[in-house]
Amino acid sequence: MHLILPLLASLLFVCGLIVIKRAGAAGVSSVTTVFCTNVAAAFAFSFVWFMGGDGVRWDLWWQPLIIAKLFVFGLGFTFVAIERGDVSLATPIFGVKVVFVALLLTATGEQELPWQVWLAAGLATLGIGLIQWTGEGNRHHVILTVCLSLAAAVCYATFDVLVQRWAPIWGAGRFLPVVYWIVGLAALLLLPWVDFSPCRKPRVAGLLLAGSLLIAMQAICIVVAVGVFGDAARVNVVYALRGLWGVVLAWLVARKWGGAEAEHSRKTMLFRIAGASVLTIAVILAIVSEDFSALGE
């Protein structure tokens, strides 16, 4: 049942990025978006405190600090990737996180992953390759978007593995709020570069607020799923469904309100849908496999 959380997170993440992309088109900078999203996440995760825990481990203060840095850098790479490229291109590439999580869990000895996880991760990678294979427009922007998306995936994969390892020591209800309070404090360092002038228009302010809250809500879903239940490998395979939502929803929104996806050829969008479908097969494989129960042991 805990896999409902990453499924919900995958939808919230894509909706959040689509809204933030539109706010960016209206003049909101990536720095301003990162600031607002970090503050929203710090506020939202304060409620996780009521989940309880063993207490704040002051002797292990460096653990939430490392986690917070990974989140901030991952979020920064994510928003710049969305600013420079298509949502339907960047979002599925974030799914490479599935492979990085599997590699890190194996390398650190955290879990011995069955072949189904590796097959699902391989299919997810194939799907991502199909999605970006026919990227049109400025090739430099496509390559930059891919690199930024991969950098975000590395940050978030390391984030998930470390949360799975360290959260039980504190208790998720103590560890996660401390992490995001640090994230909120770090956001204050961005204030000299934050520009709220585009938000004088109520529509733009609404887009920024909605996007920040959606990203904060998806963070709660995915981080709580990993921090409380562990199972980072399977959680991330399900979370990779955001690649499917990213292609379909971004295309539908662009057709209605305008956007780069509406300008792409039918062939490009079909390739992206095909890749997203392969990602979906990877998710189904992860869920129906009986051997996955061994991952949490």
Q: Explain this structure to me?
A:
Helices cover 74% and strands 0% of the residues. Helix 1 packs antiparallel against helix 9 (202-229) and helix 2 runs antiparallel to helix 8. The protein has helices at 4-25, 30-45, 62-84, 87-93, 97-107, 115-133, 139-170, 172-187, 202-229, 232-239, 242-257, 266-288. It starts with a helix and ends in a 9-residue tail after the last helix. The protein has one domain (4-296). It has 12 helices and no strands. It has 297 residues and is an all-alpha fold.
Overall pLDDT, averaged? 81
Number of helices: 12
Distance N terminus to C terminus? Answer: 17 Å
Major beta-sheet overview: none
Q: Total number of β-strand segments?
A: 0
Overall radius of gyration: 18 Å
Helix amount, in percent? over 70%
Strand content range: under 5%
Shape: globular
- Taken together, the total number of domains comes to 1
> By helix and strand content, what is the structural category?
mainly alpha
Low-confidence segments, given as residue ranges, are: 290-297
What letter string, H or E per element, gives the SSE order?
HHHHHHHHHHHH
